[in-house]
Amino acid sequence: MAQAAKNLTAPHPFGKEISQQQLVETFNQCRQWEDRYRQLILLSKKLPTLPDNLKQQDIEMSGCENRVWLGHQLLSDGYLHFYGDSEGRIVKGLLAVILTAVEGKTPQQVLETNLLTLLHQLGLEQQLSGSRLNGVKLLIHTVQNTAKNYTKAPPDVEL
């Protein structure tokens, strides 16, 4: 992925320097919701702000309380790169969690990743408000649909 990494749109540390296992270990040390909340804010600070030219309407999520952008690209080596941003710190932290789990995976690997299970492992799912949980589920659905679109085989051509 070294060659493809040079062409990343809006690079970030999630899925590379910050692994899913590291997230689980960090969040398992949190005993209270406030500690998890603090961790989400710290994660949000590590997700670089998208430049204005990337905050395009076609990657802006509708139905979220905060403005959220989620873009992607299929790299030349067949791996997916997801990038995003949010105006809300908690939502941006949740986006960072999702990016950690799906970054640098093939579309098939993304489809095999259970993101709701990860939220549960981190102790986040039960602490989110209904509207915020719906927004996270929308992000997850978008990630999965993106991966699904890349796994669709071209239709058979009849001769």
UniProtKB/TrEMBL annotation:
InterPro entries given in the database record: Cysteine_desulfurase_CsdE, Fe-S_metab-assoc_dom
Highest taxon listed in the record's lineage: Bacteria
SUPFAM superfamilies: SufE/NifU
One Pfam family from the record: SufE
Active-site residues per Swiss-Prot or TrEMBL entry: C64 (cysteine persulfide intermediate)
Homology family: Belongs to the SufE family.
Annotated PANTHER family: SUFE-LIKE PROTEIN 2, CHLOROPLASTIC, SULFUR ACCEPTOR PROTEIN CSDE
Protein name: Cysteine desulfurase sulfur acceptor subunit CsdE
Encoding gene, per UniProt annotation: csdE
